[in-house]
Amino acid sequence: MLSTRQLLILQVIIDEFIQTAQPIGSRAISKKDEITFSPATIRNEMADLEDLGFLEKTHSSSGRIPSEKGYRYYVDHLLMPIDLSPRDEQTISGVFNQGMVEFEQVIQNSVNVLSELTNYTSIILGPEVYATTLKQIQIIHLSKTTAVAILVTNTGHVEHRSFSIPKEINPLDLEKLVNILNERLVGVPIIQLPKRLQIELTSIIDHYVKDVATAFKYLKGALLDQQPNNLYVGGITNMLLQPEFSDVAKIHSLYSVIEQEETMANILRSQDQGIHISIGQENKMTEMQDCSLITATYTLKGQQIGTIALLGPKRMEYSRVISLLDRLSNDMTKTFKNW
Amino acid sequence: MLSTRQLLILQVIIDEFIQTAQPIGSRAISKKDEITFSPATIRNEMADLEDLGFLEKTHSSSGRIPSEKGYRYYVDHLLMPIDLSPRDEQTISGVFNQGMVEFEQVIQNSVNVLSELTNYTSIILGPEVYATTLKQIQIIHLSKTTAVAILVTNTGHVEHRSFSIPKEINPLDLEKLVNILNERLVGVPIIQLPKRLQIELTSIIDHYVKDVATAFKYLKGALLDQQPNNLYVGGITNMLLQPEFSDVAKIHSLYSVIEQEETMANILRSQDQGIHISIGQENKMTEMQDCSLITATYTLKGQQIGTIALLGPKRMEYSRVISLLDRLSNDMTKTFKNW
DNA sequence: ATTAGCACTCGAAAGAGTTGAGTGCTAACA
DNA sequence: TGTTAGCACTCAACTCTTTCGAGTGCTAAT
């Protein structure tokens, strides 16, 4: 459908625009080494590319900038995977070779390295609760009337929640109860915990061990209203460096979406396995429609347990960013597998 | 030193400027109910106030804006404490009446309510380590080779850290070790932990229980490199709403300071007991010299254990903000005391 | 001591002119 | 027939001027 020459021109324009954020004119294109024809020819081709919807003008006599359709075509057909630069390679290796043994540490480091290397905003959705299972429940008494319940998952994640112990609860009952819970719930996926606690155990405990029923009622409250916040964001201020966000209003609306953890988590959660790119209007959130979002997933035992993403202007360095995300999601997957 | 009339004019100008962020002219001042004299008189007084350094002009024929000296005088002499508005009152009561039992919850809620009510950025330094003591150490095995060490403080704070268990370590030794540690270290202030671990125990363990020495060597590593991050920030994007920060460069430099948790923590840590106000250049960080920082401290057992702060433009609503901080720090102190 | 009056200042907004990087179109060329 | 040189045209960005008005300081009158 597009001639080789048109593809070449489209590629040059997008590559150049990604670097400069400025409209590209025919003369500038003709100066490129790989371009052997004159500005006039280029102008004709550009006019055609514009008619086809791949390019846009900012005003009637301006150079061209890529349209969203242009980016989409570029990403789908023109992008060739590049190897990571030695520097990127080294930085990432450095992070993953330091022998991290904690989930949050891996994620936190990944968020940091991503935003530092790219100057975009990186967002990582932590391991999904349905892939992690309960390792142990512990109760630790802080005082006569307060205690903290600690929940450890197989991924090394620790959730805790303090609660007050009503007078009518016997500390021994509480201990007994925790033992029962551990017996029955260890290995259960976190996501099933509320249900399991609610239905299965309530009846069992009512039957077998009447005396801990009251204790259970209180402990359940403490265990249930966990809402694990597993969204990690890095390099938010990087957006301020992008010329497309020199407008405070834009920044503000974008930040307000990122701040809505629930919304962002849902967006990342709904991503398919592998690498996925949303350009501009392809994003559902209107506030993100000046941006591109590139996501990759990482897995544990073949099951997708989380998503890493980069948010930047539409003129992102797609090929580099894709390589980075690919490398990072693999490294994460590998790291988790080794545990 | 200043006449009543001058004080009145200074007060009107600052009050007005706090609302509008626009220079105030003599005519506008004369329209105020409490002002009974003519613009010409006001102009004379304003010229005097400017000579004394309390007011500034943005250009030679503009109205006046308060200088930093002006704000300082206002804060020191003109501010009268006001009662919280019913709405503020209600919002804060709502937060503190919900029976929170967890340290982090209290702080997180306080940060949120502060930034929501004020539209400034709120920063809270969590309870200082020297005021919190160790409640318990726990080791939970995740797999044959990995475990997570959990550290609970008397404030209900939980720190955790995964580590891998080298082959040469006997799990039983590890357990024995944890028991020993708990026996000896419970009640020790967190800040002394590294020292205690390092010096006192190393020798004791070497003496008494040779077999756990190796285990200790590894566990120590896991316990020592905790750096509790106890800085909570809310409403960072609020700064974008202030007209004095319509410039992206300013925002960026300000954000970069706030992001340096260590720096911010040190600033908050060095605050005196009670409410303290730093206006503009009074702030040490150059990036914050367009801002005012108002801090209040909260206590546990009479000892100052943390700081809450509001960061905003120099034309902050000082009286309201002070009332809010005062109320909030009291509520926090009270809440912690009740536990 | 206060104020009315007036000349003066200066930023902000609006308009005019200039520049230059870009275009589209036409006609000549290989 | 595809390519290119040439040229008129467009428009944002910049600069320069003008106008406007909200403000001032100063002086003289009350």
From TrEMBL, chains A, B:
GO terms for biological process?
negative regulation of DNA-templated transcription
- What keywords are annotated for this sequence in UniProt? Repressor, Stress response, Transcription, Transcription regulation
Provide any one GO MF term from the record: DNA binding
Q: Residues in domain Heat-inducible transcription repressor HrcA C-terminal?
A: 104-322
What NCBIfam families does the record point to? hrcA
Query: Record's PANTHER family?
Result: HEAT-INDUCIBLE TRANSCRIPTION REPRESSOR HRCA (PTHR34824)
Q: What does this protein do?
A: Negative regulator of class I heat shock genes (grpE-dnaK-dnaJ and groELS operons). Prevents heat-shock induction of these operons.
Which family, according to the similarity comment? Belongs to the HrcA family.
Instruction: Output this protein's name.
Output: Heat-inducible transcription repressor HrcA
